Structure formats: structure tokens, C-alpha cells
Amino acid sequence: MDNFDITIIGSGPGGYVAAIRCAQLGMKTAIIEKYNTLGGTCLNVGCIPSKALLDSSEHYHNATHNFAEHGINVSSIEADIKQMVKRKNDVVSQTCDGVKYLMDKNKIEVFTGIGSIVDKTTVKVTDSNKKETLLQTKNILIATGSKPNFFPGMEPDKKRIITSTEALNMTEIPKKLLVIGGGVIGLELGSVFSRLGTKVEVVEFAKTIVPTMDKTMVKELTKVLKKEGFKFHLQHKVKNVTNTGKGVKLVALNKKDEEVTLEADYCLVAVGRKPYTDNLGLENVGLSTNNRGQIEVNDNLQTSVPNIFAIGDVIKGAMLAHKAEEEGVFVAELLAGQKPHINYNLIPGVVYTWPEVASVGKTEDELIAAGKEIKIGQFPIKALGRARASMDILGTIKIIADKETDEVLGVHMIAPRAADLIMEAVVAMEYRASAEDIARICHPHPTYSEGVKEAAMAATDNRAMHI
Ligand code: FAD
Ligand code: NAD
Which one of 105, 136, 256, 297 counts the least CB within 10 Å of its CB? Predict the structure, then answer.
């Protein structure tokens, strides 16, 4: 029987990053992954493949919509989805191979098979030939992630009624795609197909798309996506969706409780994800999941069994790769006797539409509900020289600060490369900067980042300059 300081179950961004940090800190580390490739949802069927297809489809969109204006004439442009998916697969396999390299480099032992907890110091690995290996371990870290969720009546058959996993491997460009759920996955994957010419219709239960996002961003993003061709059926409750052989038929109830029938080639079910704990053997150590399927942990990410920890999508909080990574590092450093800390208020969120939407801190509504006195500075992207040069003129940057102290409490932006731009706000907020601090920092010209400075100036004495 092998002996380890820590055994990690699941090799997604939570598990593999935890493994590296544990190994760096001198722990004998094992990681177990049931699939043949490492990297979990994020690398195999999540962040990386979706961004690869978003980038490819964005190139196509630019070629068909913007090149001529830039003075680039291309006579015939064709979207080859099979090549796009092939390139996406190459990106995925290079990235997953990179994780395997990092495991080897850090002398982390990788076991392929299903990991299940036998008792609090023993984990069993069962491989595809049913061969069992027992690992003796001082600590266990559960990082088993999540799976697509669905509700009765919308069960994916993975042929016409699909999840994100199948949408990332389409071999044809649908003429029409229905998306259940106007959240992050629905809008990102909807964008991929909309840019390739698919008519995309989103059926959303709530009053708006991405209901958790700041209301100004919701308004702007809705406008941008409608312009791109999206159609939204808001406040619609899906009754059922059926595979008709050649397509799908969806029946929903609108807000007046009237039946609405929609038809399309495919239906993407994107109504959230659920924690994954199948075959984990939680019951063998007296652990169970809560009513949301999550493993309960305390502030140290520790379960009620002191040497068993859990991180990432399988516990509470945002289902984001970078949140899982921070938690992996946290557990490793805690076990090494350090005093790590995660600022959950400053985990940025991004929707990779074009323009991208990025946020950190609190939304306007959250601050108002908390009784905060606030002031808001906003600056439109189209007023930036860089935006006009690149023809990327859609979007706005919004900074919310405390009315009294000027401390930045939330930053929300819809802007080109907002996913990267938001980091200025994250750093500023980590150091508890005021809007005035950001306004006084010299920003390079011409860049989109000047919009952050201008929004900060707008928040302090309404003194934005280029508007
Ligand atoms: P996972 O990545 O889900 O990894 C868990 C791993 O554990 C899996 O490989 C699974 O096979 C393995 N496992 C489970 N049970 C066992 C077992 N018993 N034994 C052995 N192995 C087991 N997040 C972002 O931050 N940015 C994005 O752009 C983004 N895009 C996304 C796009 C899509 C389409 C999807 C679906 C998700 C996206 N996410 C994104 C979310 C992100 O993928 C997850 O938040 C992240 O992967 C969670 O990491 P994790 O380590 O907790 O779990
Ligand atoms: P989500 O929670 O972002 O969105 C789900 C949407 O479906 C919500 O708008 C919700 O109101 C709606 N909905 C729920 N039930 C419904 C019903 N019965 N009928 C119609 N609409 C319904 O979930 P998702 O888009 O599936 O993404 C899952 C997770 O993956 C998210 O937590 C997200 O953080 C993560 N993710 C992140 C990124 C990123 O960071 N860019 C990208 C993709 C996924």
C-alpha cells in the first residue's frame, strides 16, 4: 500500500493546483482522476475549449462583418466547424498534456480511475479494468467538481437536447438553436453559434439574462446580443422539450401562463451545474451532501472529518476555475502550517461574449440593499481613441465607490478584453483603493484601460475628461 501526506480526488483546476502547491511545500502527493486526461471540466469541456471556439467564431465574425471597413477584402469566407472543433481539440490536448508535465515535474503520483474514500486514511482507486489500488494517506482533498444540471422535462438526450459538452463538439452549424438558460454558458456558447450564422433563441426563467450581474451590464449586454441576432424569451418557464427526430420542440409558459411552442435544430440545456459526488464513498466516513448537493466545509475548507477537505465546484460559492485554484492553494498552505486567506469578495467574474463583461466586488443593487451610500462613475467605451481605432466601440465601464470614503466597492465593465482589464480593479480593491487613487494613476494612451481611469474620474467629482 502506498503512503501519502495528501491524496487529492479530481484533477480539475482545484485539484491539480492544490497538488502542485502541496508538492512545492514538501508533501508526498497523490492525485486521482477518473478520466484519461487531467485538467477536469475546465480544461477538457469547459473554460479552455469554449474560449477556443469563441476565439475562432470571433475571427469569422470579424472577417464577415468588419474586415471590409478596415479595407481588407476577402472574396469568399466559409466557416468550417469541423476544423474549428479540431483546433479546439488540439488546444485542449496541449493544455491537458501541460498538466501531466507539471505533475511529473513536481513528482506528484497520478492514478487513473475512480477514487473513493474507504475510511478517513484510506482511498481506493478502481481503474477501468476494475483493478483496485489502496492508498494510505494522512489527508484527503475532495475536488470532484460538477456536472451539467437539468430539470424534469428537459433531460438531455445528448443528441438533439444537448449540454455544453456536446455543444463543444458539434459537427454542423445548426440553422436554429434554442438555449434554455440565459446564464454564462448559454450566452457564451450561444455567441459561438450566433457568430457562425445560427439563429439563437434563449429561453430564460428570470426577468433578465445573467440575473446576478450588475443591472447596467445586463442592459448593455442584452442590447449587444440582440444586435448580434439573439432573441430572448424572458420569464418563460420550460414545460418540456422533445427530440422530434430532425430537431427539437420546446413548450414553455410565458409570464401570462400561456403556452409558447418553439422549434429548432438543437436545444442546449444550460441551467446551471450540480456538484459531483457519485461513487465518492462519503458515507464511509459519515459525510453527506446538503440539499444543493454540496459538501459542507468550514472557513478552513475542512469537512466535519478534520483531515478531509473539499474545494471548488463541489462546495459552496461561485463555480469558477480561479476560485477552485485559490481554494486548492489555501488547503495546501493550511496543511503546511501557513496562514492563507481568500478574499471571496474579490473573485472576478467574466462572461466571454464580445465585448466581454467583467465584474468584481458588489453590484449597485447589492450595495443599495445593504444600505450603503454610494456614488457611481461611468464611461462609455466609444469615447476612447483606442476603441475608434480598433472599431470596438460597444460597452461601458462603471465604478461604484463609497459616497463618504471614496473606497471602490464594485467595478463592472462591458468592454473589449474586459477579462484582462478587470484586473486593475481587483488589484486596486485588494489594496482598498479609492476611486481618486485610480483616477490619479497614469494609464497608457491609447488603451481601453483609459476607460477605467475616466470612470474613476467620473466617480470623483464627475470630472471625466474625454466625454
Ligand atoms: P472540475 O474541473 O469539474 O474537475 C473535477 C474532476 O474530478 C473531473 O476531472 C472529474 O472527472 C474528476 N472526478 C470526479 N469524481 C471523481 C472520482 N470519484 N474519482 C476520480 N476523479 C473524479 N470557469 C471559469 O473560471 N472561467 C471560464 O471561462 C469557464 N468556462 C466554462 C465553460 C463551460 C462550458 C463550463 C462547463 C464551465 C466553465 N467554467 C469556467 C467553470 C469551471 O470549469 C469550473 O468552475 C471548474 O472546472 C471547477 O474546478 P474543480 O477543480 O472544482 O472541478
Ligand atoms: P448559470 O447559473 O450561469 O445560468 C443558468 C441560467 O439558467 C440562469 O440565468 C437561470 O435563471 C436560468 N434557469 C435556471 N432554471 C431555468 C429553467 N428551468 N428554465 C429557464 N431558465 C432557467 O449556469 P450555467 O450558464 O449553466 O453555468 C454553470 C456554471 O459554470 C456557472 O456557475 C458559471 O459560473 C460557470 N461558468 C463560468 C464561465 C465563465 O466564467 N466565463 C463560463 C461558463 C460557465
Answer: 256
Query: What is the pTM (predicted TM-score) of this model?
Result: 0.98
Q: Quote the CA–CA distance of 34 and 264 in Å, as a whole number.
A: 35
Residue 274: CB within 6 Å of ligand 1?
no
- Residue ranges, comma separated, of all CATH 3.30.390.30 domains in the chain are 347-459
Q: Does domain 2-148+274-342 have CATH number 2.130.10.10?
A: no
pLDDT computed for residue 273 by the predictor: 98
The answer to whether residues 422 and 345 touch, using CB atoms and an 8 Å cutoff, is no
At residue 2, the pLDDT reads 77
Q: Note the CATH number of domain 161-271.
A: 3.50.50.60
DSSP string, 317-328: S---HHHHHHHH
C-alpha cell at 374: 454610494
**Planar angle of CA 422, 425, 430, nearest 5 degrees:** 130
Domain limits, CATH 3.50.50.60, in the chain: 2-148+274-342, 161-271
**Cα(209)–Cα(392) distance, integer angstroms:** 23
Atom 34 of ligand 2: nearest residue by CA position: 319
177 membership: H or E segment, kind and range = strand 176-180
The ligand 2 atom nearest the CA atom of 313: 32
Question: pLDDT for 174-202, tens place per residue?
Answer: 999 999 999 999 999 999 999 999 999 99
Task: Decide yes or no: CATH 3.30.390.30 for domain 347-459.
Answer: yes
CB 361 within 8 A of CB 347: no
